[in-house]
Protein 1
Amino acid sequence: MQKIVDNHPLKAFNGLTLAIENAINAFMTSKYNPFYYHGALPQYYLWVLYLSGLLLFAYYIPTIDNAYNSKLLTNAWTSVDYITKSLPFGGVIRGIHRYAGDAMVITILLHALRVWFTDRYRQYRWLQWVSGIVLAIFVLFIGQTGFYLVWDDRSLLLTRMTASAFEALPVIGPGLKTWFLNGDQITNLTLSNFLFIHIGLSFFLLFGLWVHYLRMTRPVLTPPPAVNYILTALVLVCVFIWPLSSGSMADLNQQPTSFDIDWFFLFPYAMLSQMPVMGYWAVMILGTVAITAAPWLMIPKQPAIETAEVVLNKCTGCSLCYKDCPYQAIEMVPAPAGSRFKLLATVKDFRCSGCGVCVGACAFDAIDLPDLPDAEVNAKIKALLEAKG
Amino acid sequence: MIKYILSPKGIILLAFAGAVVAVSVLMAWSELGFTGTTPDWLTDLTSRIGLHGAIAGFFNSLTPSLGEDLTKYLQGKGVSVNPKSTASLGDYGYILFMGVALTIGGIAIMIIGREDAEEKTVLPVKK
């Protein structure tokens, strides 16, 4: 694995991230270094979004008109206005929901960059990379539907831009537009659909995360409390510094022409407004395919990996190698008849990266790398520890 | 215990704890919408322990400076509330002070927990 990193064209960037990591370690120690929780940071914000979204959902009315002739809550815009201006802490909770979403996008981006520069996105990690791309696309779309739900003039323009972009696609375009609007035109059913997408897809993220964690040994799911305090505080301070407000209520008889852009979620609309719609789709689809295929496009030429081998007469079935393997390449199976022990470690060759973690974990010299004897692995570890002091 | 409190770590702990409490007190004041008028529960509580004048005076003294500045900032950012509602500009102040308190608390935990956070690598003993 080290050979791959050494040959990586982006080695300089990898060195930069490691230097930043070391600097943070010197300041706040490894326990609180967000570099070691970069995957857990977006997930923490996901819980914040679920909780704040639940509170907003209790007062949100997904309709676009005033047909009910009520002086109280009559449509989406007025319900958001009520939440923001009249409900105790409503404006604040709406702000938390918005800025936690922005923070989630930022932390996802940091997570992806870190994974990329440390070369952990391919070969044995391809599933995490591909599922991560899918999760990121869903997060963006869920966030965008959140902007539609406010139902101000920006929401109307975004809805019309999205419907037009869908409609321009060949073959599936008209069907996508009908699905998106929940009919042929914008009606109350359209906002019901947006609300369903916003909430339904949010829960789909949990399934996506489950896939994302497959083949990961002991993934860190939650940062330590002190880091959580800081993550929460960042959102709260943003709520005060940039309090939210809505535009004017959407009017189907008007066509808004410009809006304030949130660069974290709405950058595709900035692209869409600057290029032909088919060019936009070509950039988005080809870009997504290229990023998704990166694990296979970026594999450098290298010698075949020598996978770990279990020394059968030494293995005690203690499971240490099984617990430490980062790639879930070791499986504990019942020991053969006549053995003194209950379990035996076996190596799944197709998942083994030859990293040597299992060799270091084994207390019985019972697992070896053919090209890297156990004694040599231990000598290397000791040398590194002594060099560190 | 006294020895611990007087140690550098203990002094840092006390300083940060004091800062968190001080900022957290401002959260209660923010609930008043920066008016400085102490709520009934606080008036009643402080009068029972004989500190009513001091606490009410502290809250009220903040109004001409901090309260008006925060109100001016929020209104400049377009924040408005329905006059008939129970929401207030103080909601935003409450969140600001909570954020500051959490930041101080988080940094304090990182400093105090620094020694416990050192990684210790143990090589397995080969048998």
Protein 2
Amino acid sequence: MKTLPSTDVVIVGGGWTGLLMAKELGARTKHSIVVLERGGPRDNAYYTTTMDELDYLVRNRMVQDCSRETVTFRHSVADKALPLRQLGSFLPGTGVGGAGEHWGAGSPRHSPDCFDLYTKTIEKYGAKKLPEDHCIQDWGITYDELEPYYTRAEKMIGVAGKAGNIRGKRVEGGNVFEGWRSEEYPLPPTKIPYYASLFRDAANSLGYHPFPYPSATLTEIYKNPDGVTRSACTYCGYCHAGCMIGAKAQPTNVLLPVIEKQKGVSIRTGARVYRIVHDGNKKARGVSYVDASGQECFQPAELVFLGSWTFSNTRLLLLSGIGEPYDPITGKGTLGRNLTHELTLPAARVFLDKPLNRFMGTGSAAISVDDLNGDLIDHSNLSFIRGGLLRANSQGYQPILNFGFVPPSVKSRWGSEWKKAAVHYYDQNAPIVFIGEHLAYKGNYMDLDPVYRDDRGDPLLRLTLDWRDNERKMTEYMIPKAVELGRAMGAKEITPFPGLRHYDATRYQGTQVHGGTIIGSSAETSVVNPYLQHWQVPNLFVLGGSVFPQKPVAGPTLTILAQTLRTADAVIDRYLKRPGLLA
Amino acid sequence: MQRRHFLTLSAVTVGGVLVYSLDRKLSRVYAQGNAVRIPLHFFDEREALIVAAAVARIFPSDESGPGAQEAGVVVYIDRQLAGPYGRDHDRYRQGPFENGVPEVGYQGKLTRGEIYREGVKKLAGFDRLSPAEQDAALRQIENSEFFTLLRQHTIEGMFSDPMHGGNIDMVGWQLIGFPGPQMTYLEDVDKHFGQTFRPKPVSLTGGHPIEDEK
């Protein structure tokens, strides 16, 4: 073990949160900052060769190498967990920029009531309405507290959208159900391709309030407050392989250009952190990692930030013995609790009689309806709480992942009949997607697997996760709504989603897994305080989606960035002047 | 030294076939007489003929257009299996190997290459059966991991960039009207509503499909 010269700040993970914290500290303090990223270096030039569906979207060349490290999975504590030998329902990133390089750039805010979900639901329906084994809780911060940081984050990454609520004033054309915004979006919404436009017209005809989905793909050339200029999207449809022109916001094109000019920040790639070193659960002293040459190193630091995505954030704390692991039987312990994923499914696949030219688009060139989201519908007589959005996305459809869908009247899955229908409908079908809120339950959590290990010999993270009736009933309620929208779009045939049974780790949903190190107002029920500071170890902060106590409907990235900015302010303005627990 | 294997394809419709080596160097193999001989990297010729026959039943060449045969799907699969993907280098390979629920995904010990070797063995003589007999034989294995891979790889070989060895001359892309990687649709993305818009395909190897010589 080699002990390296001490640094003021060490940041684990070089994705959105790690690099954003580095940028803020680098710009506003004189501290020395080391970012440790397990994957390789990356810059914009990398993306000139990635317009290849097979390598980048099917073989997932940009995501975590699970031959070295994966997670194990089971549905309940009664089952034995087995390793995910290849990734499926989520795709954690690796390399500089992390998952922020291959995301789809959807950038909505969370609805205000997501932050006090527990209190709001009890107020309206009483405690009996909550699912029996839920463990949902309030965040300990409010939408109003986060609003200025949302605005800053939107300006930083350049969100294109249409406001629906500016300081309480309803604006038609935007999402009229959204939380109040202090200003209009920095850029006008994306162009609306044909498929999304059909959905918009159908939604209008049925009395919904469709709106263009906010997207961090620039619709005009844009210079952000850090002085970073990026060019406008050309709708090539290869967002998920990384944007070669820098129109889609990625850590490598929003944050790296600033960090590269900062003297205090250095990024080490190929650095796999395996322990946080600490004094008796009271003070972090730094981190241990294996560098690119295989050398084990100890990096001492005064201040430690974890920004390594939900799995690694949680696993590093478990491996390091920081905090008390959650026990689903007794309910004691907080580390690892409240594992949630998003509930995303093709609620209805529509087969139309017109070509969609759906190869054109961008990650979030979508029209959405929020009318069935959150608590906008009255749940008094429904057997579930909360809801979600319906969306038609002209994301730029690639042929391998999108070939082969045939209408329900065609029964075969190979051979002449199938091929004829699949070719005919190739450019005439697309899904209406439902994204629903995922509540937290006592039995859904993360801990260390007792059997399976990574290539270093450390235990893998174990996920125990399954759907409950709330998600199943919510899905049942939404499918007919999607089918009705599909009919209004002129669909000749429609394949409804067959219904939700057990959580399927092989069906891609989205890289939005939450919990493990959740935020809260009490050390009894959460791992970090509202400033994302570890309750027991005040010089340790945990950034990212692992702090969400449950999964709201909106894509998490903008909220993660806003929370990181809020923590950066608290650290720079208060903690560094007087280290200790922030209140 | 191992004997080199070649796959012999009929060259009735093609003057030459674009073939990519493992390091993705492009070469064009011309017909000698009535046949094109393509070097194989994973299969032997007997195996390749069986796989070629099987994928041609999954994605047939018929009145609705060209299929796996014209796209060179078997060449694509051969190249994939000869590389790290065929040896499961991307998968978590540590034991114990145990059976699990379908929702936890593949838990077998065999690599993809090994699954093919085993699967093809069970289809001995397949390429000499009649189409109806071939379909019956495939229906027997429809629920196997081998068939799942075969079907998935057929779609990949039809529609991946030609640099991977399949989709020869962008035949798959032309079939479904996919234009390949284009730099911009800025002027077209919100136009052509309800009308077919089909830019001339391009691939990462450069160039457009070969024009028919009339």
